[in-house]
Design goal:
Helix content is about 5%, strand content about 15%. By secondary structure, the chain is mainly β.
Length: about 200
């Protein structure tokens, strides 16, 4: 079974480490930049972080382990050289304290100053207009129109109808029985017996 593991060279460039079965094989394949190099298994070291590393550059592997080395009669022995890595680290050697005080100093300064005043005058107009009026300028004066909508009620006399009245005279006879009352006077004379 083939196992592919990431591997880095001494410059930090990343490649692939192909572990061929069986695990006891003495050589492994290193792939980088579309190239493959067969190197001894004992050249692969494991760093403190658990990652696989090579002590050489990938470009140096191709020179030390050419692809046709197994067909040559000579044996190539890799020579490994350690290199010194120098780095700098900042070390605190002392401290500097900066103290800042505020010092007051009076000076006489004469500068011209300008002030603007605004005078507002309300001018009644009360004029009917057909369209909105925009802001206008007359010299240094700015005139801002103030408008409002008002309801206009208009009365008109309208003739809705006419009533025509006509008078005509007709004659007819009406017959009815009417009871009329009248008084009659009757005179009676009464003769007295005691008259001689």
């Amino acid at each position: 079974m083939t196992q592919i593991i990431p591997v880095t060279d001494k410059t930090g460039q990343t490649g692939e480490l192909v572990l061929l079965a069986p695990s006891s094989a003495q050589e492994v394949v290193v792939r980088y930049a579309d190239k493959e190099v067969i190197v001894p298994r004992n050249m692969i070291v494991v760093g403190k972080d658990g990652r696989y590393q090579l002590p050489l550059r990938f470009s140096e592997l191709a020179d030390l382990f050419p692809a046709d080395r197994h067909q040559a009669d000579t044996t190539v022995i890799p020579v490994v050289q350690e290199e010194l890595a120098v780095r700098k680290q900042a070390v605190e050697t002392g401290k500097v304290r900066v103290i800042k005080n505020v010092v007051e100093q009076e000076e006489v300064v004469t500068e011209p100053v300008y002030a603007e005043t605004i005078e507002i005058e309300r001018v009644p107009v009360h004029r009917v207009i057909d369209a909105p009026v925009s802001i206008r300028h007359e010299g240094a004066k700015t005139i801002i129109p103030v408008m409002k909508e008002v309801i206009v009620v208009q009365k008109q006399l309208m003739l809705t109808e006419e009533i025509h009245i006509s008078k005509a005279r007709t004659q007819s006879y009406d017959t009815q029985e009417v009871t009329l009352r009248r008084e009659e006077v009757r005179i009676e004379r009464e003769q007295l017996d005691n008259l001689d």
